[in-house]
User: What shape does this take?
Amino acid sequence: MSEYPPGSEFELIRRHFAPLSVSEEGAYQLDDDAASLSISADKELIVTKDLMIAGVHFISDDSGRTIAQKLLRTNLSDLAAMGAAPRAYALGVALTSNLRTNWLSEFADGLANDQSEYGITLIGGDTIFSSGPLFLSLTAFGEVPKGCAIRRSGAQIGDLVYVTGTVGDSAIGLMAAMGELTKLPDWAKKYLIGRYQIPEPRVKLGKLLVGLASATTDVSDGLIADLGHICSSSNVGAHIDLKDIPLSSAARNACALDSKLIAKVLTGGDDYELLICVPPSVSTKLLNKAESVDVKLSKIGKIVDGSDVSVFSEDKTQLKFEQQGYQHF
Amino acid sequence: MSEYPPGSEFELIRRHFAPLSVSEEGAYQLDDDAASLSISADKELIVTKDLMIAGVHFISDDSGRTIAQKLLRTNLSDLAAMGAAPRAYALGVALTSNLRTNWLSEFADGLANDQSEYGITLIGGDTIFSSGPLFLSLTAFGEVPKGCAIRRSGAQIGDLVYVTGTVGDSAIGLMAAMGELTKLPDWAKKYLIGRYQIPEPRVKLGKLLVGLASATTDVSDGLIADLGHICSSSNVGAHIDLKDIPLSSAARNACALDSKLIAKVLTGGDDYELLICVPPSVSTKLLNKAESVDVKLSKIGKIVDGSDVSVFSEDKTQLKFEQQGYQHF
Assistant: This one.
C-alpha cells in the first residue's frame, strides 16, 4: 500500500522490534501468534494501557525517539503509581506514509534507551499501516508483591499529600512549543518543552511506596483532577496550599510573566509526577525513601473530610479554577 | 472537543465499560491507574495484541456490535493458536465525532455478548478522541499450563496438517461487501459477508490442543502465508493438496462462477481458523477432540523436508500464486 516503510511487516519486525525482545524468553523473538509471561507465585501482574495519537498527545514533527520515550514513559508512570516494577510491554503501531525514512529507527532507538533505563522488555504487538494520523498503543506489564498494589481508594482523613518533582512544566512547555510565551527566555522554553516531550516516570520511587502509601496516582490529567480521582475513589476531600506546589525555575519564570499560568500548573496535566498520600506517622520514612532514589518530594496538602479538592492561597482564600483538568472529550 | 460522545471520559467508562469488568476483581471497576491480574503458579500468561482501523480491518459503516466482536475475536483466535484459555483483555478506543449516537452502546453490547460466549473480561484500557479514522486496539490475556504454550516452531517432518472449518469465506465476503461478485446468490453473499464481519475463533478447540499439536497458528494473513510462518519457524516445508482445502457451499458457489477466486481462498486471509500440525500417531485423538467441541477438521497436507509451502492440484501439478498472503504494507 505504500513505499514506506520498506519490506513486509515481518521484515520490519525482525529489523526494528525483535532486537528489543531478546531479554524475555517468552517473547519468542516476536515470531509467534502471542507472547508468554511467567509470573512467580508471590507476585501479581499490573496491566496498564495508553493510546497516543499525533496532534493530540505529541506534536507530529517530534522525533521518533522522543515519541517512543513519551509513549513508554506515560505507561511506566501508571505502573509506578500502582507500586509496580516494570516487566514487559506490548506495542501497537499504525504507521503512516508521511513519516521520515529513518523515523522507525529513531523510534526503536528511543524504546531501546528506555528499556535499559527502566528495565522493561518488548514482548509483542501489532504493526499496521494507516492513512490516518500516526497512532500508537502500548500495554505495559509490571509486577508487585501479591495483594500489595497501591490503589487510588486507600486515602484516609488526616493523610498528608505529597507530590514528586515539579508540576506544570509540561502544560506550559506545550504552550511554548506552540509558539506562545514569546517573552520567556530560551533556556526556560527549552527546559519546559523537554519536560512536555520526555516525562520522567517515578519508577524507582513507585516500587518503594508499597506498604507505605495509602493512595497514589500519577499526574496525567492535572494535579487537581488527579487528586480529585483519589478523593472520589477514597470518599474523602483534600486541601492544597498553593504556596507549597513545587515549580521549576522555568515555570516560575513563566508564571512571573503571566500570573494566569498558575491555573495551567494546577489543571494542565501531562506531568507524570506521583501524587502520594501517607499517614503523618510514616512521612519521615517516605522522605527518606525519596531521598534514597534522588527524587524531590513536596508536601502540598492533606486529606480531609469532604468530597472535593480545595486550593488555598497564602492568605487562606479558597481559589476557583474553571477547568479541573485535561478533558479527553 | 466534540459533542459526541456526551460527558467526560470517566462518565463514558462508568456507563459503557465498567459493567464489562465486574467479574475480574483486579479490574478495580476500571477506577484506577492500572489493573491487577493474579496468575496461579501452574499457569503462564499468554499475551496478544491486535490493532484495527476503519477502512483497513472493517468497513466504516459496520455496526459497533460487529466491529467489537471482530476486534475481540481476532485476539481470541491468537490465544487459541497458542492453546490458551481466555482470561481478560485491555481495550484502547480512539473515538471519532462522526459515529452514530448509539455506536458506543452497540460496541459495548458486542463486547458483552462475546465476553459471555468466550469467558473473557475487560480489565482496563484507554479511551481517547481523534479526528482520524476510528482506531481500536485490544490486548488479550489467556492462560496455559506452564511451559505448554503451542508454538509455530514445533512442526516436524512427517506431521499431518489440519485446518478447522472452511477457508476463503472472509476474503470472498469482503469482495461481496464491496459490491463485487454481482452474480452470486444473495444467500451466499450474506453468509460470506457475515464470515468477514464476525469470525469464529476456535477457542474451545485451542485449549484441547495443548500436549497434542506440534505447531499451530491461526489463518489471519492467508492459508499459504500462515503455513509459511510455521514452516520458517520450524525449518520445514509443507505440501498442500488443493482438493482437500475445505470450502463452504457459498465459497464453492463463488469459485464456480469465477475460478480465479481459488487464489483468494489460499491467500486472502482473515479466516481465523486454526492450522494444526500433529504427528500421524495422534491424528485420531485430534479428530476426536475436534468432534467433542463440534469443530470440523480437514486434513489438507503434510510437513516435508524443505522450506516452502507447495500447493498441488489433483493431477499433482504444483500451483503458483502471485501473492502469498495479505501484505500489511
User: Anything to note?
Assistant: Chain A has two domains: 9-145, 152-319. Chain A touches chain B through 73 residues (CB under 8 Å). Residues 1-6 of chain A have pLDDT under 50 and may be disordered.
